[in-house]
Amino acid sequence: MHRKISPSRMAFHVVNTIFLGLLALICLYPFWYILIYSLSDATRAQAGVTFWFKGFSLNNFKKVLELNGIGSALFISVARTLSGTLLSVFACTFMGYLFSKDELPGRKFLYRALVITMYVSGGLIPTYLTISAYKLVNTFWVYILPGVVSAYNVILVKTFVEQLPASLEESAVLDGAGAFTVYRYIILPLSKPIVATIATFTAVGQWNSYMDNYLYVSKTSLNTLQYLLYKFLNSTQELTKMLQQGDTSAIHQMGSASQLLTPMGVRMTITVITVIPIFMVYPFMQKYFSKGIMLGAVKG
Question: Does pTM surpass 0.85?
Answer without folding.
Answer: no
